[in-house]
């Protein structure tokens, strides 16, 4: 299982995570080229991605799509996202977002049992 914790920086992932993605995307190691195009070599892996955002952007935000696409490129199709959004709006929004994230994490824990 791969676990990623990702804040939103300027509508995208942090530059350090982008650099990490650059380092792990290696032809012949994490993917390979075939006659039908690239094929991810990390099949049958699960990823859980925790995304935090100060505002509210929704789960279909391009940041989420990019992370899903990158992991899929490596062959990781089983991806669960936990979003905690609205953390910088006000205390009520922050509290509600964190409670929702805790509930999602608890649900993921029950699924793992």
Automatic annotation (TrEMBL):
Residue spans crossing the bilayer: none
PANTHER family on file: FMN-DEPENDENT NADH-AZOREDUCTASE 1 (PTHR43741), FMN-DEPENDENT NADH:QUINONE OXIDOREDUCTASE (PTHR43741:SF2)
Short name of any one Pfam family annotated for the protein: Flavodoxin_2
Listed name of the protein: FMN-dependent NADH-azoreductase
Origin species: Microbulbifer aestuariivivens
Xref: Gene3D superfamilies: 3.40.50.360
InterPro entries in the record: Flavodoxin_fold (IPR003680), Flavoprotein-like_sf (IPR029039), FMN-dep_NADH:Q_OxRdtase_AzoR1 (IPR050104)
Residue intervals of the Flavodoxin-like fold domain: 2-107
């Amino acid at each position: 299982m791969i676990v990623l914790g990702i804040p939103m920086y300027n509508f995208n992932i942090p530059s350090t995570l982008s650099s990490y993605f650059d380092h792990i995307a290696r032809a012949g190691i994490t993917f390979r080229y075939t006659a039908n195009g690239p094929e991810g070599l990390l099949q049958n892996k699960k990823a859980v991605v925790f995304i935090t955002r100060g505002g509210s952007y929704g789960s279909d935000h391009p940041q989420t799509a990019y992370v899903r696409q990158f992991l899929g490129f490596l062959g990781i199709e089983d991806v669960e996202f936990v979003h905690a959004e609205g953390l910088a709006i006000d205390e009520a929004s922050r509290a509600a977002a964190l409670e929702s994230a805790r509930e999602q994490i608890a649900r993921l824990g029950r699924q793992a049992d």
